[in-house]
């Protein structure tokens, strides 16, 4: 018994010492996409605020490939010491449905730290499309079944997911045209080679403001407050009840990371999400910083679990899979 008490006391002292000293060296945040993209931008902006809150350097490690699963795998298999984190987007919830085999379990192989932001999406069309509002667009869709080209930025991309869900809810199959990224998809939409696309405000706001595309609706349940998008109706209010698609980002650690580290990171994340400069940078991207219970680990995990169910059902219905 004495030995057990001594061991327990030693564990408590070691935990306390870890908590007091953590973090003692730079923390690496893995971004499972190439540098320069929206997720990388979020990570680098958050890294500044998070590093200030933790009083430590944040290093961004871009590990792209396989729709974000390579970077996620790296973190799932990393040492659970609090010095390797993952910043991922909605792909955390869609990968279980898209990929037949994942080298990790999304809900069981990570510690959830909190949701960071949400990015609304917009439904847009080529400038020559003979429709000026969503009601007219819907009539055009019904009159052109089998002739509509729907662009996206590739398998698993935000535009692919949104477009897939849109087809299901309007009950019209469209010819899906995948591209290697948003830029080429947008170029062909502007040129009239494809008809419509559903993509993040980070990629569409400038085109809408410039009058270069037709804008028909937003994908959130509530209208947006951005001046150039405020007059756009929601798809929910136009008959697609419950249509709600936002691209979100969250922060994760390998399973088994010490509770003391998780608590410090979560506390620092809450401070970072209130940072004025971070808010300013997110607003410039068209993103909304999360300010609700989902910043807590438990609610973050609960949210992702619900998103896995939501997208798993949609992906299965569409019959879209990646090897």
How would you describe the shape? Answer: elongated
End-to-end Cα distance: 54 Å
Mean pLDDT reading: 91
Write the element-wise H/E pattern from the N-terminal end onward.
HEHEHEHEEHEHEHEHEEHHEH
What's the CATH topology name of the largest domain?
D-Maltodextrin-Binding Protein, domain 2
Rg result = 21 Å
Strand-residue proportion = 15-25%
What is the quaternary state of this protein?
Answer: single chain
Main structural class? alpha/beta
CATH architecture of the largest domain: 3-Layer(aba) Sandwich
Which residue ranges are poorly predicted, with pLDDT under 50 across at least 5 consecutive positions? Answer: 7-14
CATH hierarchy, class of the largest domain: Alpha Beta
Number of strands: 11
Q: What is the helix content?
A: 40-55%
Major sheet details: 6 strands, mixed
Please give the order of strands in the largest beta sheet: 2-1-3-10-4-11
Keywords: Signal
Pfam family, one: TctC
Family: Belongs to the UPF0065 (bug) family.
Protein name: Tripartite tricarboxylate transporter substrate binding protein BugD
Descriptive overview:
The protein is of the alpha/beta class. The protein folds into 2 domains: 165 residues, 3-Layer(aba) Sandwich (D-Maltodextrin-Binding Protein, domain 2); 118 residues, Periplasmic binding protein-like II (D-Maltodextrin-Binding Protein, domain 2, 3-Layer(aba) Sandwich). The protein contains 11 helices and 11 strands. The strands form 2 sheets. Strands 2-1-3-10-4-11 form a 6-stranded mixed sheet, with helices on both faces. A 5-stranded mixed sheet has the order 7-6-8-5-9. Helix 2 links the parallel strand 1 and strand 2. Helix 2 runs antiparallel to helix 10. It is elongated, with a radius of gyration of 21 Å. About 2% of the residues have low confidence. Belongs to the UPF0065 (bug) family. InterPro entries: BUG, Bug_dom1. This is Tripartite tricarboxylate transporter substrate binding protein BugD. Keywords: Signal.
């Amino acid at each position: 018994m004495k030995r057990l008490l001594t061991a327990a006391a030693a564990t408590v002292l070691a935990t306390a010492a870890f908590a007091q000293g953590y973090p003692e060296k730079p923390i690496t945040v893995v971004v499972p996409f190439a540098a320069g993209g929206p997720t990388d931008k979020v990570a680098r902006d958050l890294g500044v605020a998070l590093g200030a809150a933790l009083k430590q350097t944040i290093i961004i490690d871009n590990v792209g490939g396989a729709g974000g699963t390579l970077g996620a795998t790296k973190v799932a298999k990393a040492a659970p010491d609090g010095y390797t984190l993952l910043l991922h987007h909605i792909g955390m919830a869609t990968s279980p449905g898209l990929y037949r085999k994942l080298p990790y379990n999304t809900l069981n192989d990570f510690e959830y730290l909190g949701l960071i932001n949400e990015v609304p999406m917009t439904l847009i069309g080529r400038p020559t499309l003979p429709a000026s509002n969503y009601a007219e667009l819907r009539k055009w869709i019904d009159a052109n079944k089998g002739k509509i080209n729907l662009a996206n930025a590739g398998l698993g991309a935000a535009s692919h997911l949104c477009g897939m869900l849109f087809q299901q809810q309007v009950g019209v199959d469209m010819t899906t045209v995948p591209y290697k990224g948003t830029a080429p998809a947008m170029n062909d939409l502007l040129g009239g080679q494809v008809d419509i696309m559903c993509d993040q405000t980070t990629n569409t706001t400038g085109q809408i403001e410039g009058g270069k595309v037709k804008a028909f609706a937003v994908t959130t349940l509530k209208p947006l407050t951005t001046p150039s998008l405020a007059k756009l109706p929601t798809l929910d209010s136009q008959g697609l009840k419950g249509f709600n698609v936002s691209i979100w980002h969250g922060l994760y650690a390998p399973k088994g990371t010490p509770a003391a580290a998780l608590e410090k990171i979560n506390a620092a994340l809450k401070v970072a999400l209130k940072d004025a400069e971070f808010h300013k940078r997110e607003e410039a991207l068209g993103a909304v910083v999360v300010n609700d219970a989902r910043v807590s680990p438990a609610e973050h995990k609960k949210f992702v679990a619900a998103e896995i169910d939501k997208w798993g059902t949609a992906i299965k219905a569409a019959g879209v899979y990646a090897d």
